[in-house]
Amino acid sequence: MGSALERVQRDAVHERDRLRGHRQRGFLAGYLATRAGARDATLLGQAIAAQIRPTALLIHTQPNEPWDEHDFLLLEAWAILQAEICKQCHLPKYICHNESHDLVFDVMEDSCGAAAALHEREQANARNDVKLDAGVQLYVRPVLLSGGDPATLRDAYYESLAQQQAELAELESGS
User: Fold this and answer.
1) Is the domain of 130 the same as that of 85?
2) What element of type H or E holds 106?
């Protein structure tokens, strides 16, 4: 990930920031874990998956330029976030392993029509002793009965979700 000179320069920047008190370990990961940082965390994950500089997506710079100290700080923050994820529930460990008496967990339900249709088909195959050939895998494809493009459902879905979240926030605030 860089020459020896780049590593020495990066280490010097880290040491300078430490001495000046500008950088606490994990401060950026802490921000990315908040609601305010969620969008940036998503972009960071996408940049890393695409193997491009994180700042390319976050602040719209050219992805093929050399990585700088900010890219490495973002990469470190991403590594911290990933290490904090519980393998069982996929929440941050500081939440799901927390013993605070103030913390409770609501069990939510998420309904996926595609997964339900796939499950029904697998159950029907099992009841009818239908065996798939080697290499054959079932998958789902969305189809609108009207013949339209399923992508047209996106805006209405997110508007409905935003309305539900606003109603929930109003209930929680007691207004």
Assistant:
1) no
2) none
Euclidean distance between CA atoms 160 and 27, whole angstroms: 34
Note whether 39 and 45 are within 8 A (CB).
no
Distance CA 37, CA 139 (A): 34
Residues 54/47, Cβ–Cβ less than 8 Å: yes
- The reported pTM is 0.56
Q: Is 21 left (phi over 0), alpha (psi -120 to 50) or beta?
A: left
Is 101 within a domain? no
Q: Give the model confidence (pLDDT) of 27-40 as tens digits.
A: 788 888 888 888 99
Report how far residue 46's alpha carbon sits from residue 51's, in angstroms, rounded to the nearest whole number.
Answer: 8
Residue 153 structural domain: 113-173
Residues 119, 91 share a domain: no
Measured distance CA(129)–CA(124) in Å, rounded: 8
For residue 28, the model assigns a pLDDT of 85
**Which domain-ending residue is among 96, 129, 161?**
96
User: Buried b / exposed e across 154-165, counting CB within 10 Å, b at 16+?
Assistant: eeeeeeeeeeee
